[in-house]
């Protein structure tokens, strides 16, 4: 399809800018730009048709099953969007929080109450909603780890991560100035305990774990690991990307974790927006409260105030309260579900994953572990003998109107396909997916070329990723 | 432990399973209850039931969130400081509320995500055209983190560690940069003492040949329009990367970072079609010269061909990113602000080339007009040169006091600069955009007049 710039017609106008005829501003020529920026010139209808057509080229949760592992692509009730559309929330200026707090008591109360709810769900003592995504929650966590060690005069130089960890974990540790030590995974799909103990030492700053891990497996020795870490004065960090498996069943704070982030856009009612915005609140135990990012919302009698600076704090990671609009949806979601509802959600997410795993195990290898929680990892390596890869299966699913699972992650599984159905999908949808996966496996032996040519009915045929990286056409300029 | 499924069955809005289906699925899995799936969690680690309020229905829930929203009182805003209320055409909301844009994930599977990818490519193109740069990423969290990431990027390019920050950079952005730099071996160096009117736009002496970058902002925090063309040229001679932080709306009129010769341009996209929303979500962009693209953090959409030779788009240069490169990635960023970037693109498309120039002219002339009006009422204007849509008022009383008085009269008057700078207790940073009517401006001037 043409780019919006290619649809531009000189002198055509879209929206009218309010405020009558513009008077030229009194700005000297040397401070002005030479030419106006070459933005599109289209009518409102041209623009709406263009973007509606683009939307139709996307797979989305509202149209397609989207079992993307590690991403929790659940359906979020529309009423959550409605809750966030309140004008009182949308029009509040962030500076009002400090210069006119009386006029934004509603937003401040929401922040305070959501922090309390997340503390309860995670078993932690204090929460900052400021981080704008999981990775920024991790950054907040790692900066707090470093600040706390330095405040106590402890010299640390590395963090420990299992080899199944999300890429953000090691990348974040480096941003806090730590080296990364990786521990392997045993045949049971769990972090190798003996190797962990060998690598844990007095200079270990923190141990980063995902619960359940990215294979969907819960580590029953988690409190033993935490106790060992504590013995080395290392903090325990929980990557909360997989919290959808555990609500009401396990609270990381009860098992010795000191810090965790929560991805509100995975577990708590916020759609992903095609990649964001999300929110990654960071939750901590009492010992780390003083290090939380500022500003903080505090309750003074019946009203809410904002504390802008605090000794010990790692400072600001956003000017104010991060992605507030996302927080409203998460708050509304928790109200809608209640505590019991959240627990039911985790049960059904886990049931759906186990049911699918049962249906698929005849066609694909399950390389690690028997039990799984809300997601599981298959290997398509059995199809290799036909010259078919996980990548081919993924593209085949697109032709079936199904968004592919996460492929080639975690890195320790060859031809990995990571499947997370979520609780909102019906048995019928799961059955149809299992059928499509079975068809792919059968087609691999019968007509592998057919798989390698997929997709054929999608908005685009198979795209040349290598060519894109070679030619590097990254923008349409003038 | 009792499984919730066994004891209660609430018709929760988002769960499709019937009790019969649950029973059948459990049988298929060879277990008698959902609780069995959780057997790996030792009993000693199992919590009591969550202490949260009981489930509300849609109506009750909306009543509660609406009640909270109404505890916020509307204020007529003359406040900016990085967050601006601008007119948003209704079609921006219409496009962004299309679930085919707001319910997909990151477009890793190109063939199933051409809509998001082409929109990203168009967003990158629009940002390049605004800033006069060659490449841009598909957004980061906000303008402040964009600047912090740009500083880290400059450190990677140069192998140097000193981050020189011009005094006109938003003080909250400086705080965010400091948090980001704290433990990664880089350190910020703030140039010179602060006064509202700049003494010079020259390269500060701190930006010597040990500096990774020189960060400037235009218009600066006090609203002044600056020209860092010579500073950028001087920086280049010392091997220092120049980074320009801009208010994108001003680029309808003002010399762009690229025209000034900057290497990297960053900014906040909230003013481009995104609501204030108490500070977020908005988004940040980072644009740069093509030769630095491999050091650029965040997702980038690139053009390619599909199997039948048709144009298509994919996420490209992923080897920079954390999911491939892990601890050697250019940043830890994964989730970005994609939907806000889409809003910015739709906004720029609707406002269009001529509209965008006219919008910037209106902002600048309106702010000049308001400042004249206030000058006639006897208030001092601290800016000695041209400003865009924000300026500094010198009040005969403390600005904190003035702001709280204005709040009583329904105005968010501006930012008391004493919060950030010593000796500026009577100064208030005030912004005027095209959303303010003549009547609101008159009432604001009147309210200010009564105050003092």
Annotate the secondary structure layout.
The complex is a heterodimer of chains A (about 475) and B (about 450).
Chain A (H helix, E strand, L loop, with lengths): L43 H12 L22 H7 L2 H4 L5 H4 L5 H18 L3 E3 L5 H18 L6 E5 L5 H8 L3 E5 L9 H7 L4 E7 L11 H10 L3 E6 L18 E4 L1 H4 L14 E3 L11 E5 L2 E5 L16 H37 L15 E4 L10 H10 L6 E2 L8 E4 L7 H20 L1 H5 L12 H7 L7
Parallel strand pairs in A: 2-3, 2-4, 4-5, 5-6
Antiparallel strand pairs in A: 1-7, 6-7, 8-9, 10-12, 11-12
Chain B lengths: L3 H4 L11 H11 L28 H14 L4 E2 L12 H7 L2 H4 L11 H18 L3 E2 L6 H16 L3 E4 L5 H11 L5 E4 L20 E8 L10 H9 L3 E6 L10 H4 L3 E5 L15 E5 L12 E5 L5 E5 L6 H4 L12 H39 L3 E2 L8 E5 L4 H10 L2 E2 L2 E2 L10 E5 L6 H14 L1
Parallel strand pairs in B: 1-13, 3-4, 3-5, 5-6, 6-7
Antiparallel strand pairs in B: 2-8, 7-8, 9-10, 11-12, 12-15, 14-15
Oligomeric category:
heterodimer
Number of strands of chain A: 12
Helical element count of chain B?
A: 14
Total domain units of chain B? 3
Portion of residues in beta strands of chain A equals: 5-15%
- Residue fraction in strands of chain B: 5-15%
What would you give as the CATH superfamily of the largest domain in chain A? Type I PLP-dependent aspartate aminotransferase-like (Major domain)
CATH fold name of the largest domain in chain B, please? Answer: Aspartate Aminotransferase, domain 2
**Averaged pLDDT of chain B, please?**
94
Helix content of chain A: 25-40%
CATH homologous superfamily identity of the largest domain in chain B: Type I PLP-dependent aspartate aminotransferase-like (Major domain)
CATH architecture of the largest domain in chain B: 3-Layer(aba) Sandwich
């Amino acid at each position: 399809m043409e780019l919006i710039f290619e649809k531009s017609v000189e002198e055509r106008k879209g929206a009218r800018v309010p405020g009558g005829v513009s008077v030229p501003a009194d700005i000297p020529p040397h401070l002005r730009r030479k030419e106006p920026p070459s933005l599109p010139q289209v009518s409102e209808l041209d623009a709406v048709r263009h973007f509606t057509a683009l939307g139709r080229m996307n797979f989305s949760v509202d149209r397609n099953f989207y079992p993307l592992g590690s991403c929790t692509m659940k359906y979020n009730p529309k009423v959550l969007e409605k809750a966030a559309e309140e004008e009182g929330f949308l029009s509040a200026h962030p500076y009002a929080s400090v210069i006119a707090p009386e006029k934004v008591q509603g937003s401040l109360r929401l922040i305070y109450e959501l922090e309390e709810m997340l503390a309860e769900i995670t078993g932690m003592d204090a929460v900052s909603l400021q981080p704008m995504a999981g990775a920024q929650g991790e950054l907040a966590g790692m900066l707090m780890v470093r600040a706390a060690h330095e405040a106590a005069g402890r010299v640390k130089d590395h963090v420990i991560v299992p080899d199944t960890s999300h890429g953000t974990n090691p990348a974040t540790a480096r941003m806090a100035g730590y080296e990364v030590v990786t521990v392997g995974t045993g045949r049971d799909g769990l972090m190798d305990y003996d190797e962990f103990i060998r690598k844990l030492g007095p200079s270990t700053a923190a141990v980063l774990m995902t619960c359940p891990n990215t294979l969907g497996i819960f580590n029953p020795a988690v409190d033993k690991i935490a106790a060992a870490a504590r013995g080395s004065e290392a903090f325990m960090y929980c990557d909360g990307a997989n919290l959808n498996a555990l609500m009401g069943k396990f609270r990381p704070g009860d098992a010795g974790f000191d810090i965790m982030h929560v991805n509100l856009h995975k577990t708590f009612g916020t759609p992903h927006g095609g990649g964001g915005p999300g929110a990654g609140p960071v939750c901590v135990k009492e010992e780390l409260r003083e290090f939380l990012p500022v500003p903080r919302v505090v309750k003074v009698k019946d009203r809410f105030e904002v504390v802008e600076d605090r000794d010990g704090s790692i400072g600001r990671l956003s000017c104010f309260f991060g992605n507030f609009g996302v927080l409203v949806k998460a708050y509304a979601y928790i109200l809608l579900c209640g505590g019991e509802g959240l627990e039911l959600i985790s049960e059904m997410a886990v049931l759906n994953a186990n049911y699918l795993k049962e249906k698929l195990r005849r066609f694909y290898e399950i390389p690690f572990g028997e039990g799984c929680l809300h997601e599981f990892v298959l290997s398509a390596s059995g199809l290799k003998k036909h010259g078919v890869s996980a990548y081919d299966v993924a593209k085949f699913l697109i032709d079936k109107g199904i968004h592919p699972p996460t492929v080639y992650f975690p890195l320790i599984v060859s031809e990995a396909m990571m499947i997370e159905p979520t609780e909102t999908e019906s048995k019928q949808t799961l059955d149809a997916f299992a059928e499509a996966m079975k068809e792919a496996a059968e087609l691999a032996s019968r007509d592998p070329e057919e798989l390698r040519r997929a997709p054929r009915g999608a908005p685009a045929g198979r795209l040349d990723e290598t060519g894109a990286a070679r030619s590097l056409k990254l923008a349409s300029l003038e | 432990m009792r499984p919730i499924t066994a004891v209660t069955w609430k018709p929760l809005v988002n769960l499709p399973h019937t009790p019969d289906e649950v029973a059948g699925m459990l049988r298929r899995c060879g277990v008698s209850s959902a609780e069995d799936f959780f057997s790996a969690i030792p009993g000693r680690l199992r919590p009591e039931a969550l202490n949260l309020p009981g489930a509300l229905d849609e109506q009750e829930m909306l009543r509660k969130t609406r009640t909270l929203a109404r505890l916020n009182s509307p204020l007529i805003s003359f406040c900016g400081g990085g967050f601006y209320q601008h007119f948003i055409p209704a079609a921006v909301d219409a496009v962004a509320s299309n679930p085919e844009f707001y319910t997909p994930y990151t477009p890793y599977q190109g063939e199933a995500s051409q809509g998001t990818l082409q929109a990203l490519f168009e967003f990158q193109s629009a940002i390049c055209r605004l800033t006069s740069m060659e490449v841009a990423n598909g957004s980061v969290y906000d303008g402040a983190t964009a600047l912090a990431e740009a500083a880290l990027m400059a450190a990677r390019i140069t192998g140097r560690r000193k981050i020189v920050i011009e005094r006109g950079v938003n003080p909250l952005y400086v705080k965010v940069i400091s948090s980001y730099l704290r433990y990664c071996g880089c350190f910020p160096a703030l140039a010179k003492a602060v006064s509202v009117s700049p003494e010079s736009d020259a390269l500060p002496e701190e930006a010597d040949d040990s500096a990774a970058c020189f960060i400037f902002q235009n218009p600066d925090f006090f609203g002044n329009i600056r020209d860092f063309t010579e500073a950028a040229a001087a920086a280049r001679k010392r091997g220092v990367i120049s980074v320009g932080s801009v208010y994108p709306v001003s680029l309808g009129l003002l010399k762009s970072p690229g025209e000034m010769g900057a290497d990297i341009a960053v900014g906040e996209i909230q003013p481009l079609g995104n609501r204030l929303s108490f500070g977020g979500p908005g988004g940040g962009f980072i644009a740069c010269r093509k030769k630095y693209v491999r050091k650029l953090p965040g997702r980038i959409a690139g053009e390619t061909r599909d199997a039948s030779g048709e144009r298509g788009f994919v996420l490209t240069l992923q080897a920079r990113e954390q999911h491939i490169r892990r601890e050697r990635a250019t940043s830890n960023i994964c989730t970005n602000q994609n939907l806000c970037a889409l809003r910015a693109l739709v906004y720029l498309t609707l406002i269009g080339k001529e509209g965008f120039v006219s919008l910037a002219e209106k902002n600048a002339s309106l702010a000049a007009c308001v400042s004249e009006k206030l000058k006639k009422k006897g208030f001092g204007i601290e800016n000695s040169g041209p400003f865009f849509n924000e300026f500094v008022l010198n009040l005969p009383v403390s600005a904190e006091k003035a702001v709280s008085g204005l709040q009583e009269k329904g105005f968010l008057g501006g930012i008391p600069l004493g919060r950030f700078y010593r000796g500026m207790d009577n100064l208030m940073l005030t912004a005027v955009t095209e959303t303010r009517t003549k009547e609101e401006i008159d009432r604001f001037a009147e309210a200010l007049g009564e105050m003092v």
